[in-house]
UniProtKB/TrEMBL annotation:
BP GO annotations: bacillithiol biosynthetic process
PANTHER family named among the record's database cross-references: N-ACETYL-ALPHA-D-GLUCOSAMINYL L-MALATE DEACETYLASE 1 (PTHR12993:SF30), N-ACETYLGLUCOSAMINYL-PHOSPHATIDYLINOSITOL DE-N-ACETYLASE-RELATED (PTHR12993)
Entry superkingdom: Bacteria
Gene: bshB1
InterPro entries: Bacillithiol_biosynth_BshB1, GlcNAc_PI_deacetylase-related, LmbE-like_dom_sf
Name of the protein described by the UniProt record: Bacillithiol biosynthesis deacetylase BshB1
An example molecular function term from Gene Ontology annotations: hydrolase activity, acting on carbon-nitrogen (but not peptide) bonds, in linear amides
Pfam families xrefs: PIG-L
């Protein structure tokens, strides 16, 4: 079996991809596509949980979603910046997995790491196709780069009907108990103050635009291509 992926999703932290497009991931994985997630950091600056706990939660979520692979580049949490070293690490990850489609966080968000991640992925997707960039590895021409929303939602270019796969998204988010559930040793953060419920309400509202129960929205910087209008 080929090691190449159909879809590769990048996030700054484990749980970013699940928040933004967990049901879309589950839907495509269940259909037989090879889907992977690459987290850029171990979220070591999180107010709740530990690196080891976050790793365990990410692995549990990966199984729920049906991922082919999940990796972590170990870049510094709250230290993401547009440096050549970080761009190269991400570029090589793209070349390793040869995805047809890449997803990145939308470039506007309340969390600076999500913004930085978005810009890093855009740079890496561009570099991945250049024959003379890191010539020891083969170039990869990603067919499409899409952006997903995490904390802040803007106007979507397209949406995916995820009604049938939405339970998998909620189950994957529930795997991150250290982030979304309050406990004796936790401190209050936006994530454990009804955040998952607000994400669900957001996805219901997105679906309402096309009279479906749940939808996840995405943005493309390139015009969407169709063969014809049906």
């Amino acid at each position: 079996m080929s090691d190449s992926l159909d879809i590769l999703i990048f996030g700054a932290h484990a749980d970013d991809a699940e928040i933004g497009m967990g049901a879309t991931i589950a839907k495509h994985a269940a259909s037989g596509l090879r889907v992977g997630i690459c987290d850029l950091t171990y979220a070591e600056m999180s107010s709740n949980g530990t690196v080891e706990i976050r790793k365990e939660e990410a692995e549990k979520a990966a199984k729920i979603l049906g991922l082919t692979m999940r990796s972590n580049l170990g870049l510094p949490d709250r230290g993401l910046s547009l440096t050549q070293a970080y761009i190269e690490r991400i570029t090589l990850e793209i070349r390793k997995h040869k995805p047809r489609i890449v997803f990145a966080p939308y470039w506007q968000d309340r969390h600076p790491d999500h913004i930085a991640c978005s810009h890093l992925i855009q740079e890496a997707v561009f570099n991945a196709k250049l024959r003379n960039y890191a010539p020891a590895t083969e170039p990869v021409n990603v067919q499409q780069l899409y952006f997903y929303f995490i904390n802040d939602v803007y106007e979507a270019d397209l949406m995916v009907d995820v009604t049938e796969s939405y339970d998998a998204k909620i189950a994957a988010l529930s795997a991150y108990r250290s982030q979304f559930v309050t406990g004796q040793d936790t401190v209050a953060t936006p994530l454990n103050q009804g955040y998952v419920e607000r994400v669900e309400a957001r996805d219901r509202l997105m679906g309402q635009k096309r009279m479906i129960t749940y939808a996840e929205g995405f943005v493309s910087k390139l015009p969407l291509l169709v063969d014809r209008f049906n």
